[in-house]
Amino acid sequence: MMLRIAVLFALAGALTPAAPKNRDWQTGTLLDAEHNGYFGGGQNRPDTTVSLADAKTGTQFHFTIEPAAGNLVLDHYVIESETDVYLVDRMRLGSAKPPVLVVNARVRFAVEKKKLWLLDAAGRELQTTIAQQKAKLQSTQ
Questions:
Q1: Rounded to whole angstroms, how far apart are CA atoms 79 and 118?
Q2: Within-domain flag for 140
């Protein structure tokens, strides 16, 4: 019960709108989260631990989402930039529709410390947390 209350407070804080911010936007490619050459097959995501932080107070919340809970969903995305590849997570309510993002399509994103911001098809900013980062494999041509 206490975990659910902490999750709801953390989620409410994460969803609080912030003032628009100028970001250093880049263009990359959204890869299939399960089938890619960097983080594919799910073997790199053995748990569903999520960390949230309140930048104003410095308070941090760390919790594990239990599949049986069903009211929260942890979405995984893989974004390939010119030099790096990012595995990112985003939590949403199970009743909320997932953002409109097209696999293998170009996507605009910005990186700020451990956060990665994505622009969905409607131009909305989606905050995600960087779970892993790897150097992009360079072709030998």
A1: 9
A2: no
Minimum mean pLDDT range among 62-76, 81-95, 120-134: 62-76
Per the structure, how many domains does the chain have? Answer: 1
Residue 26: inside a domain, yes or no?
yes
Range of the domain at 48: 2-135
Residue 76: predicted pLDDT: 92
Q: Is residue 82 part of a domain?
A: yes
User: H or E element: which one contains 91?
Assistant: strand 84-93
Instruction: State the Cα torsion 125-126-129-133 to the nearest 10°.
Output: -70
Three-state DSSP state, 131: strand
130 forms beta bridges with: 88
Confidence at 70, pLDDT banded by 50, 70, 90 = low
Phi, psi of 14 (to 5 degrees): -70, -25
